[in-house]
Design a protein that fits this description.
The chain is an all-alpha fold and about 180 residues long. Helix content is about 85%, strand content about 0%.
Length: about 180
């Protein structure tokens, strides 16, 4: 049963990342501002998931369990995240992190191409500078966020639990998978 689930997850990741990367390939037709906004959002998404992945690995169960016992919104979801920490950390840090890294590279290339055309500058130089700025920003943000994620692990996971609970309330019941 677990191997079927793993295959389904792998296929879902493959199709999602393929669709997202195909979408960014046509970004040259959009405005330069839109490509930079999407680049910024992609970097922030990668950092946010990195924070959750690190926090779930560092969080301890008793404080989360206390919140879930008091039936605070998102407490049960946060407890489920902590109890499945290896899978959650793998998903957040590896899968989403890799997708965001690939997307940010593609978006940086598309943005650099548009920027070079607008400036009339050497495209290779603009690409090199853009990729360097994106990589530096991503690495710095992830480095800074690691300490926060580890020191505030329970708070981060409770917030993630609330977000999961909110997302679940927005999804129609017939689309939810039964446990």
């Amino acid at each position: 049963m677990k191997s079927r689930t793993a295959v389904r997850i792998a296929l879902g990741v493959l199709l999602t990342s393929f669709a997202l990367n195909m979408g960014t390939g046509s970004l040259g037709e959009f405005s330069l501002l839109l490509s930079f906004v999407l680049l910024f959002l992609t970097i922030l998404t990668g950092v946010a998931f990195d924070i959750v992945g690190t926090a779930v690995a560092a969080a301890t169960e008793p404080p989360i369990n206390a919140v879930a016992a008091r039936r605070i919104r998102g407490g049960a979801e946060a407890l489920r995240l902590v109890r499945n920490a290896p899978q959650v950390a793998n998903f957040c840090n590896d899968i989403v992190g890799d997708i965001c890294g690939t997307l940010s590279g593609a978006l940086a290339a598309a943005s650099a191409s548009g920027l070079a055309g607008l400036m009339g500058a050497n495209p290779t130089l603009v690409l090199a500078v853009t990729v360097a700025v994106v990589a530096s920003a991503t690495i710095t943000l992830k480095y800074v966020s690691k300490g926060f994620a580890m020191s505030e692990a329970e708070r981060v996971i409770l917030l993630a639990g609330r977000l999961v609970a909110t997302a679940r309330s927005l999804v129609p019941a017939f689309l939810m998978r039964r446990r």
